[in-house]
Amino acid sequence: MLSVAFGLTESLAGRDLDAIKPHRLIKNYRRILSNRICLGYALVNALSFGYMFT
């Protein structure tokens, strides 16, 4: 916790007031889910949880 408290700086330079607007969120999710690697991880995790609860 000390390394986090003293060693890490804020990565976001300023506040983005448009970050939580619905059109921006949808655009960001679409960009993330169109990435093949991200989609592969999402499918593997979804199947893992499905098998766990079955």
Task: Provide a compact summary of the structure.
The protein has three helices and no strands. By secondary structure, it is mainly alpha-helical.
Uncertain ranges: none
Give the oligomer, counting copies of the same chain as homo and different chains as hetero: single chain
What would you call the shape?
flat
Number of strands: 0
Helix and strand succession? Answer: HHH
Average the pLDDT over all residues and give the rounded result.
87
Strand fraction: under 5%
Q: Tell me the structural class.
A: mainly alpha
Number of contiguous helices: 3
> How far is it from the N-terminal to the C-terminal residue, by CA?
38 Å
Rg, please? 17 Å
Helix fraction bin? 55-70%
* Largest β sheet strand count, sense and barrel closure: none
From the structure above, extract its key features:
flat, 3 helices, mainly alpha, 54 residues, 67% helix, single chain
Please, could you describe this protein's structure?
This protein is mainly α and 54 residues long. Helix content is 67%, strand content 0%. The protein is built from three helices and no strands. It has helices spanning 2-7, 22-33, 36-53.
List the helices and strands and how they pair.
Blueprint lengths: L1 H6 L14 H12 L2 H18 L1
